[in-house]
Amino acid sequence: MLLDLGSCRGTFGISLQKIMPDLSIVCVDNSFIRVATSMFRKPLFAKGPKFLYGDLFKTSISNVDILNVYLPQEMTKTLIDKIRAESRSTTIVVMYRIELEDLPYKERIYLGRPSEIRNRVTVYEF
Ligand SMILES: C[S@@+](CC[C@H](N)C(=O)[O-])C[C@H]1O[C@@H](n2cnc3c(N)ncnc32)[C@H](O)[C@@H]1O
User: How do residues 2-19 score in pLDDT, each as one tens digit?
Assistant: First the structure.
């Protein structure tokens, strides 16, 4: 199961579901308008993703295989504590445009010029 934390209007989840229809995708955001927009944008008869309105810090991540995270950088410190406390050792954390400072990463993918953080996807294993 992939959990998208801070899913906004659902762009990532909807796009990924199109190319991976069998993947279970759950998207969480604490903006009611954004979650409602996501539900509206989802193709009518598509199986997923599942969109949830709520605080990601109150969302369990204990059964997640892949965590996709694109949040304000200042939230990452609190998020690390949550990941350490709750996630499985096999959970992969994928961060877009943000990074877990001081933590070694497994892989970094550059989508454009390497110098710009907004072009980076960084993968962590805990
Ligand atoms: C940078 S945007 C994410 C963009 C989106 N992931 C994308 O790929 O287009 C950050 C999102 O995190 C959400 N957010 C911020 N704090 C949150 C929290 N505590 N719980 C859930 N969502 C939160 C905001 O509502 C916002 O939609």
Answer: 999 999 999 999 999 999
